[in-house]
Amino acid sequence: MSVRITADGVVREGRVVDLRDTGIDGGVVVAAVSGEESPLSVESPRPTAVYDYCGHVRPGMGLQTRTALAAAARSRGVATPVDDDIADLHDELASFDSTPPTLPSLRSPAGDATVADHREVAATERGRLVARETVGADTDEARTAVREATRRLAERETERRAATQSRRRRREVARAYRDRMAERRRVADRLENRRREARDWLVEAFADRFETALAAVPGTTPTDPFEASPVPAALAVLRIAHTAAPVVVEVDRFETPRAAADALDAPVVRC
After folding, report:
1. What are the Cα distances from residue 174, in Å, to 62, 122, 135?
2. Are 178 and 196 in contact (CB under 8 A)?
3. CB neighbours of 82 closer than 8 A, spacing ≥ 6?
4. Residue among 218, 230, 221, 210 at smallest CA distance from 256
5. Could you point out which of 149, 171, 181, 265 has its C-alpha 20 to 30 Å from the C-alpha of 7?
6. Phi, psi at residue 99, to the nearest 5°?
7. Under 8 Å between Cβ of 90 and 198
């Protein structure tokens, strides 16, 4: 594995690169390796998930040891009995459309009093028409008045029905969206549970190897390997993981950077 680092026109290559004389911060190197914006240029394989936890070994670091160990197992291509479930649930979760719906326009309905007034006017005009028909009087004006009153009443009643339907449709759309999001949360919870099961399975499968790797790391080993402090725990995880991307080391646990690369079986950038 070759690492090529360009900084201020200086190129350094090799499985082991020592940058202690440059004053370059390890975080800058990690950013470059991870493909983030950085003043450095690093040519190396893309890091795997374990790099997120152990790619930068430094004083004061934190570590989710069990999660990191599970990622190390994954970097070795190890599968778990629940991986198919995880894949299915992941696909199901991705199939949900979480975009909030566009609700139908909210219409302002005609009030009951308004509709009642129009009905009364229409009824009055019809009564006048009937009265004129009874006495044989001219009905043209009366018929026009009935048609106009009936038209206005129909418009108000149509507006009220449309407003009622609009409110009903808005409720239906909003309820369907809430139901869809509730189902999405249930799927997400099931997926997270399966992922935890997978992590626990991997941790149990690799617990003995982790204990052995931790014992090989310079320093004291606690009775419970999973109570080890972050730096030795990270180094032990790296001894297990397959890491083609360069590990950035900022601790004095090894005599030389090459000794660190040999111990971790990974390319190393010493900062």
Report:
1. 43, 38, 58
2. no
3. 194, 197, 198, 201
4. 218
5. 265
6. -70, 125
7. no
Q: Which domain holds residue 31?
A: 3-80+199-270
As a three-state string, the secondary structure of 112-128 is HHHHHHHHHHHHHHHHH
pLDDT of 228 reads 94
Per-block average pLDDT, block size 10, for the chain (271 residues)?
A: 59 88 89 87 89 95 96 96 96 88 65 66 68 67 75 75 78 87 94 96 96 90 92 96 94 93 94 91
Cross-strand bridge partners of residue 268: 16, 247
Q: Which residues pair with 25 in a beta bridge?
A: none
Q: How many C-beta atoms lie closer than 10 Å to residue 195's C-beta? A: 18
The residue type at 253 = R
Which residues, at least 6 apart from 4, have a Cβ–Cβ distance to it below 8 Å? Answer: 11, 12, 13, 41, 42, 43, 44
Which of 182, 211, 227 is the C-terminal boundary of a domain? 182
Tell me what pLDDT residue 1 has. 40
Helix H or strand E segment including 193: helix 140-216
Q: Is 149 inside a domain boundary?
A: yes
Pair of tokens at residue 142:
């009366």
Domain count, the chain: 2
